[in-house]
Amino acid sequence: MLVAGSAYLLIGPYAGSVAAVGAIVCIPTDHAAPRRGKFLTLLPTALIGLPLFASMQALQDDPLWLGLLLVPATFCAFLAGAWGKRGLPLVISIMFSMIFSMAVATHPQSVGLLPTCLYFALGAASYITYSTLANIALNSRYRAQILAEALLSLSAMMHTQARRFVPADALNPLPVLPGQLMQQQAALADQLQAARDLILESPRTPRRQQIAAMLLCSLEIRDHILASELDLDTLRSVPGHAPVFHQLRELLMKQAQAVEAVADALLTGRQPRRFVDQRPQLARVGGELEEDMAPGPMPPATAMSRAIGNRIGNINDEVLHLNGLARGETAPDLTVVRTAWQLFVSPTSWSWKPFTMLWHWDAPPLRHAIRAALAVGTAYLIALALPWATHDYWILLAVVVVLRGSLAHTLERRNSRVAGTALGCVLAAAILSTQAPALLLLVIVPIAQAISHSFAIKRYLITAVSATVLSLVQAHLLSGGMTTAFNVFERLADTLIGTGIAWAFSYVLPSWERNQIPALVARTMAAQARHARSTLSLGQLQAVDDEPELEWRLARREAYDSLSALVQATRRSLSEPRAVRPPLEALESLLIHGHNLLAQLAVVKTMLMRRRNLDQEPTREPLQRASAIIESLLTAREPQSPATAPSITTWPTELPQTDPFGYDLSPWIVRRLDLACNLAALLRDDADRVLQARTEPEPTQTTQQT
After folding, report:
1. Does 1.10.10 match the CATH number of domain 142-289+299-344?
2. How confident is the model at residue 106, as a pLDDT?
3. C-beta separation of 189 from 225 below 8 A
4. In 34-86, where does DSSP find H-type helix?
5. Which of 46, 44, 38 is nearest to 122 (CA)?
6. pTM for this structure?
7. Count of C-beta atoms within a 10 Å radius of residue 324
8. What was the pLDDT predicted at 105?
9. 694 burial class (0-12, 13-18, 19+ CB within 10 angstroms)?
10. What is the pLDDT of residue 706?
């Protein structure tokens, strides 16, 4: 708004319109980011967009040469997808610079090519400067907001987990399936990494340290939520278990509400209410259970219920800690990450390594770039052949924003784009029918762009509505206001044609998820092995520095991120043709066992930290043996059998009468190690089934050979 309005007032309407294009081109790459590298994130947009904008302007009257520039430039632009999530906004910005250049009307007689390009450069440079300064000024607010967003997702996951605490007579159907929790875990993993990137940058001031400590606390809560799933099925087989489940569900719901209250406090700038410790209530859970289990390798029902209650108590302790940090009553402890925060954040510099690694035929970014170039070229030819040519770039715009790297995302964008365009046409028609002055329309353009950019990831339907308003108002301004009438059906037709082209070309050189699954499975297995090795090492209890703790935190992050990537790939594959889907049953089993293994190791880690000041000899040999077995199962070419895993033959029956949480943890550690080794074996079997299905011939091919 400032860029377009200033250019309008100081130079003129045409300059304001073109400067607005320069600003709009830079907006897709603008998001809340660390202060370091913010300028370099935005700069490539202007450096690449300006020459493309100028070239498209110079060739505007020659459709052949314009197409010969558009298609290869599209291919090169989509290669930026090799940089992953960082590269995708750059792709959109580069394409916007070309498409909106086509939208600029023929230069007025008093304005040539050079002034038009200068107006574009002025808009882009002004916006980059403004965005960099605004990011610095609002950095503290961004930290609080992104943490609040992560905490709200964490609270939602806690509510979901609480609904898993249902008695046996209410299991048909189970209110929450494991797949729902895994999807929430995957979404939360992405949010937490975005929060790390912003919050862990230079945590030097007291406020930054407070926010960073709250983020670390949320990571611990996530671990304990995952661990709270353990032993639920076993406890359901115990008579009289229903009251235990009701009590635990109610307490976990209250903890989730406390986390949500902290998030609300961050957004509103006030203090949350004090959270009341639930440990006294948890100490009474399970006392009414009937002890009908004979002595053996399984713990008694009362002990198991108290163990589950203790894991809920661990969440309670972290929620208390989080609440104390938010209220300023607890001092933050950032010993681990204060000096090594760079290891936990995503890189901000542009490396050439992703670009050099995509030059093989199976590389998804390369195939997507070819697919996009063919789709844009086809759309351009169709636009030239259509009887209406006033807004031929609308078809190209629809192709660019709908065509995604996966079929699932393309279908989702297609549906939202069509519905949003219909609603946006109605809204834009209402705005332009008022014959509002150009200055007011220049105000509407950045507002629509801001709304479009804000909801691009979460609610693309809203983005499509605001983008349609933006396109129609911008086209009206760039045409010099020669006409205020436009054909809504033309806009809808262009959108339908563009989305149809994008949909059709999503099947050209497709990158099916099953081709990416082997690499994701290998990453998951390696991450699980590394996490187990760092978790089961006694060096973390004896080290004089924080190196083992740092290694464990990095391994834990990679374990969660690898499972998150596999969950998302599996979910995307559900939209693909049945014949090319990966083995979904084996993948689902792998994901469940992977999350369960993380949960078992999280419990072991917690118990080791609780007894860190005690004699470690009783657990040293079981830990070493379990670590070797798990690593062999997950990484070795010929894994050994888990028959030699640590195990308990007779469970101690004595329970403490004073402190229900003060029992000997050694048998529990051994039991968790035994279960972890069994889960590692199941995980290995799941991975082998997934990879074996990948190498099996297609059923049609087998039939033909027979």
Report:
1. no
2. 58
3. no
4. 38-58, 63-78
5. 46
6. 0.86
7. 17
8. 61
9. middle
10. 31
- Using DSSP's 3-state secondary structure scheme, residue 209 falls into helix
DSSP characters for 352-402?
SHHHHT--STT-HHHHHHHHHHHHHHHHHHHHHHSS--TTTHHHHHHHHHH
On the 0-12 / 13-18 / 19+ scale of CB atoms within 10 A, 584 is middle
Torsion of CA 537, 538, 541, 545, to 10 degrees: -60
All residue ranges of the chain with pLDDT < 50 are 292-294, 482, 484, 544, 642-643, 655-660, 698-706
- In a 13 Å sphere around the CA of 56, the CA atoms on its Cβ side amount to 26
- Whether the CB-CB separation of 224 and 602 falls below 8 Å is answered with yes
Q: How many CB atoms lie within 10 A of CB 574?
A: 11
pLDDT (tens digit, 9 = 90+) per residue, 643-702?
Answer: 465 665 555 555 444 444 555 677 788 888 888 999 999 999 999 999 887 665 544 433
CA dist 520 → 495, 516, 523, 581 (Å): 35, 6, 5, 15
**All residues at 6 or more sequence positions from 104 whose CB lies less than 8 Å from its CB, including other chains:** 17, 18, 21, 57, 60, 116, 478
The residue behind tokens 């933006």 is 470
- How many CA atoms lie within 13 Å of 168's alpha carbon, on the beta-carbon side? 9
Using CB atoms within 10 Å of the CB of residue 106, give its burial: 0 to 12 exposed, 13 to 18 middle, 19+ buried.
Answer: exposed
pLDDT at 705: 36
* CA-based R_g, the chain, Å: 29
Token code pair at residue 317: 């302790």
What CATH architecture does domain 513-649+665-705 belong to?
Answer: Up-down Bundle (1.20)
Listed in sequence order, the residues at least 6 apart from 85 whose beta carbon sits closer than 8 Å to its beta carbon are: none
Q: What is the SS3 assignment for 274? A: coil
Per the CB < 8 A criterion, the answer to whether 158 and 314 are in contact is: no
Q: Assess contact for 563 and 598: CB atoms under 8 A.
A: yes
| Residue 638, token pair as written in the block | 């010929």
The token pair that represents 44 in the structure block: 């490539």
For residue 174, give the DSSP letter: -
**Nearest one of 102, 63, 32 to 395, comparing CA atoms:** 102
How many CA atoms lie less than 13 Å away from 696 in the CB half-sphere?
16
The confidence score (pLDDT) of residue 479 equals: 59
Q: Is 615 helix (H, G, I), strand (E, B) or coil?
A: coil
CA 35 to chain centre: 21
**pLDDT in the model for residue 700:** 42
Residues 6+ apart with CB under 8 A from 627: 532, 533, 536, 537
Per-domain residue ranges for the chain?
2-136+363-505, 142-289+299-344, 513-649+665-705
The phi, psi pair for 694, rounded to 5°, reads -65, -35
Q: Do domains 142-289+299-344 and 513-649+665-705 have the same CATH topology?
A: yes
CA atoms within 13 A on the CB side of 244: 31
With beta carbons less than 8 A apart as the criterion, state whether 32 and 130 touch: no
